[in-house]
Amino acid sequence: MDKIVTAAKAAARIHDGAIVTVSSSSALGCPDAVLAAIGARFDAESHPRDLTTIHPIAAGDMYGVRGVDHIAKDGLLRRILGGSYPSGPSSKPMPEIWKMIVENRVAAYNVPSGILFDMNREAAASRPGVLTKVGLGTFVDPLRQGCAMNALAAESPVVKRVTFEGDTWLHFPNVTPDVAILRATTADEHGNLTYEHEGAYLGGLEQAICVRNHGGLVIAQVERVTKRGSLRPHDVRVPGHLVDLIIVDPDQKQTCETPYDPAISGQVMQPWSHFDLAEHGVEKIIARRAAMELKPGMTANLGFGISALVPRILLEEGHAEAVTWAIEQGAVGGMPLTGFAFGCAANADAFVPSPQQFIFFQGGGFDVSFLSFLEVDVEGNVNVSKLGKKPYLTAGCGGFVDIVSGARKLVFSGWFEAGATIALDDDGIHVAAPGKFTKMVEAVEHVTFSGARARELGQEVIYVTERCVMRLGDDGLVATEIMPGIDPERDIAAASHGRVRIAADAVTMPLSLLARDKMGWGA
User: Fold this and answer.
1) Cβ atoms < 10 Å from Cβ of 251
2) Contact 509/307 with Cβ under 8 angstroms?
């Protein structure tokens, strides 16, 4: 029982200047009580100071789990490396961590999630950092921003280009953590950790090994404690010899705005009739066209936004299990969830630890990835990671860069214009009034996906919008399929200021995409 302490006592063990790695994905698996205790200690004592924190996926959300915002304080947080950051609608206040970033009060980096998981593993084994091609040609590349989110970060680069055996690579030197903060469901008195109520295994084992191998401190927040020896060994995900301190928080949320849903942690299987179908409208039509790129038996990766609707299209068509979905938090199969529970899946076949899922992604083992876009430029570059005017509307790159780096086929979905008045009827989609601006720009604000790199690798790249399907060719964006009701010259070529060409052999998409009943997928 000596390992069980209060969150305040655990926070008191963190020294000034410590490098802290945190296991979470927004509110999913977030050790919020420990982070809150660190912030409270700083408010009372002005310690710990000058922390560096590492977040492979965001810690906290904008809906009640503050996460990293507990420690987003001048003097406490000096540097942060995040795969993603808390994000949400413009109607909510900007998170404190984003204020620090945009005001240049903390050196902030957006490092792809898979690379941050890799860094834990490489540091654990005392190898010389991560050598990877993930991120070449994107904002991750030192030829662009080198992951830096502000001027303070640019002063201290975390990545460099190197030549190894005649080829170009990106090298991330080790950032070796002193402290790991994990979250699980149950700990026994020895510190063995099980995750039965969690929706994912978010790298806790790798983080604990890394910190323990370098003589550091491993803190685990759990929902409950049981007697030593009462846990089934096969259920233990982090063994007790790696855990120093246990903090009990019986009220920890399972994920964003979800106290506990047994379907998220695979303890019950929901009937397919339980899940909501996509609401009829333009976004559903975009998702339907994206779904046409699937065939039964495929393994497909899935991202946030319109793309998240694609599994619901197959569900409506009566083919819920025709495709195996793989999401970056680790769920394989089942029904990926939307809204606050995105990153989780119900009825999953398996929960793969997120670091291993990223090995699968980086190696391009899946058949196709469905992702969204904020803007696309004439080179086919895609931005999902930065919006200068409203930075917290995007979480950053997350696993996007890891996924696109090795994918054989990519399907990006999004709106052609922002704010256009769109009319939808049985005959087609009609642009009643143009939008405020096109999302087909001359140059994207942030290169999260490199069109030039995709052409070099021979990747198949498709962009699906409410007006057309575009393909990435040698000369940029070419509209090869036109939505019924769309005027190609006015609604595509002119609306994009000539940045999208209309293929001479462009075809009209099938009217079945517009149907209020099933579209006939797989027929």
Assistant:
1) 8
2) no
SS in 3 state form for 296-344? CCCEEEECCHHHHHHHHHHHHCCCCCCCEEECCCCEECCEECCHHHECE
Residues 6+ apart with CB under 8 A from 228: 188, 189, 190, 192
DSSP for 18-86, written as a single string = -EEEE--BBTBT--HHHHHHHHHHHHHH--S-SEEEEESS-B--SSS--GGGGG--TTTEEEEEES---
Calculate Rg over the CA atoms of the chain.
Answer: 23
Q: How many CA atoms, within 13 angstroms, populate the side-chain half-sphere of residue 179?
A: 23
Helix (H, G, I), strand (E, B) or coil at 267: coil
279-309 pLDDT, tens digit each:
999 999 999 999 999 999 999 999 988 999 9
**pTM > 0.90: yes or no:** yes
pLDDT at 341: 78
What tokens appear for 215 in the block? 């003589």
pLDDT digits (tens, 9 = 90+) for 9-51: 999 999 999 999 999 999 999 999 999 999 999 999 999 999 9
Structure tokens at 154: 């640019």
Q: Are strands 130-132 and 167-172 parallel, antiparallel or unpaired?
A: antiparallel
Question: 467-472: long-range contacts at Cβ-Cβ below 8 A with a sequence spacing of 24 or more?
Answer: 467/416, 467/429, 467/431, 467/491, 467/492, 467/495, 468/416, 468/492, 468/500, 468/506, 469/289, 469/509, 470/376, 470/500, 472/380
DSSP string, 404-430: HHH-SEEEEE--SEES-EEEEETTEEE
305-328 pLDDT, tens digit each = 899 999 999 999 999 999 999 999
Q: Which two tokens stand for residue 194?
A: 């099980």
Instruction: Report helix, strand or coil for 3.
Output: coil
Tell me what pLDDT residue 363 has.
96
Burial class (CB in 10 A: 0-12, 13-18, 19+), 133: middle
The conformation of residue 488, written as its DSSP 8-state character, comes to I
Catalytic residue numbers, as ranges: 328
**Residues 474, 466: Cα–Cα separation, whole Å:** 24
